[in-house]
Structure formats: structure tokens, C-alpha cells
Amino acid sequence: MKIAIVGKGGVGKTFIASQLIKLFSKDNFKVIGVDCDNNPTLSLNFGIEYIKPLSERADIIEERTGAKPGSYGSIFKINPKVDDLIDILGKKVNDNITLMVMGTIEKSGQGCICPASVLLRRLLRHLILKRNEVVILDMEAGLEHFGRKVLENIDLLIIVVEPTKKSILTGKRLKKLAEDLNIKNIKVIINKSHSNIKEIVEKEIGEVIGIIPYKEEIFKSEFSGENIEIPEIKEIYNNIKKTIF
User: Fold this and answer.
1) Which whole-number Å values give the CA distances from 199 to 47, 193, 203, 205, in the listed order?
2) 0.85 exceeded by the pTM?
3) Residues 149-197 pLDDT 10s
């Protein structure tokens, strides 16, 4: 089962991703949580302050591709070995949860084909196509990752929105891009809800599988690192299992 969580920055993707990872783990699924954000914070929800991103591992990038990061115009491997990188880069939280951080190569013009981008994309495709674990991708804010064409074979795309016009517009654009990639299973979560906007969101984007109300304890837990259980998240988790299984 491969799930990607997308949405405008600040809508709560990382919180939702971490909660789903924990719920799958409690049900004895093996889970790989992948932080694809350019400001990675997923590990904080598991009490881990820092995991070094793959994009900053110049040694691994050079070893696997045959070229240093940022080596434009160089000859390098376009199909580098990646199947062991989870064991090398992953941080075990417990017997069921492994976390890893991809990082970003979208700096100073690095959006072109370069050794770092090739390795990151190759690893993401391996995670989606080859691994047997539940893989949950906490994607970067915005739309860029669709340009990488790494999400074509995921089982479920979750678009997270909050009750603002900008967030809903971003969600609408994300759905269009996802449909262009032939992603069939697209659902929506409304987060930080303080009003009934389900009808509007379903009209503009698509089926809503859960609504998380604005709750002060969620924000307090983000600061304290305390593990809290939100009934609405459990309901979303059960809806996801019904959708995929």
C-alpha cells in the first residue's frame, strides 16, 4: 500500500502522515515513512530531532551514480542501485516503523537532470513499485513533485486542505495534475475545520474521507511531542483501509 499526502504548505500534511504511520504500525503493518519536504519535520513527531537527507549525502550520491552532486554535463549512471538504501539511510523508530528523509535538489537551478535528482527519483520509484511495506510519503508543499513523475503508481493520493480559498484552489490544481498522471484514487481530508465546507470541497476537488476540526491539543502536541489520539484520524484511517483493501 503506497500513500502520498499532498497539499499547500501549512495545512497539516506532516501531522496527518505521522498519525497514519502510527495507526498502521499499531495494526502490525511494517511502515516506511518518507519525508519529501524541503523542510523535513516528520521525524519530530516520533521524538527524533534530525535525520540527514539523502540529498545531502554526497558520498552516497557519488558512490551510486559515479558523479558528485551538482555535476551538470557529467556522465553518470541513470539507473543507480537503490534497493539497500532503506537499510543505510532509514531510522528505525520501532520494529514496525522506519523513517527516512529524501531532501530536495531544487536549489540554485538544480531542477535539471543531475546525479542527486536521478538518485532521489530512482529511490522513490523503488519505494512505490518494489517494497512490500506500507509506504507513506509526506510530500513537499505545492506542485513540483508531480513534475518528477514519481507518483504514477501509488495506491492513494490524499489532498489535505484547510478552510481557506487558497488551500482549496491549490487542492483543485493538485487533483488536475494527479489526473494528468492517471492517478485514479484521489481523496480529500479537511484539516483545521471550523465550519462545514465539505460540500464546497467535494464540488471543487473530490470525495472527502475525513474532517479534522480545529483542536488546540493538536497544536500543543506539535510543540511538546506528546503522542495524542484523535478520533477523527482513526476514522480517516479506517476509511483509507476500506478504500484500498
Assistant:
1) 37, 13, 6, 10
2) yes
3) 778 899 999 999 999 999 999 999 999 999 988 899 999 999 999 888 9
**Residue 210 CA, distance from chain mean position:** 18
Which three-class secondary structure string do you get for the chain? CEEEEEECCCCCHHHHHHHHHHHHHHCCCCEEEEEECCCCCHHHHHCCCCCCCHHHCHHHHHHHHCCCCCCCCCCCCCCCCCCCHHHHHCEECCCCEEEEECCCCCCCCCCCCCHHHHHHHHHHHHHHHCCCCEEEEEECCCCHHHHCCCCCCCCEEEEEECCCHHHHHHHHHHHHHHHHCCCCCEEEEEEEECCCCHHHHHHHCCCEEEEEECCHHHHHHHHHCCCCCCHHHHHHHHHHHHHHC
Q: Report the distance separating Cα 92 and Cα 96, nearest Å.
A: 8
Residues in the chain: 245
The C-alpha angle 60, 63, 65, rounded to 5 degrees, equals: 100
Handedness of CA 45, 23, 13, 118 (dihedral sign): positive
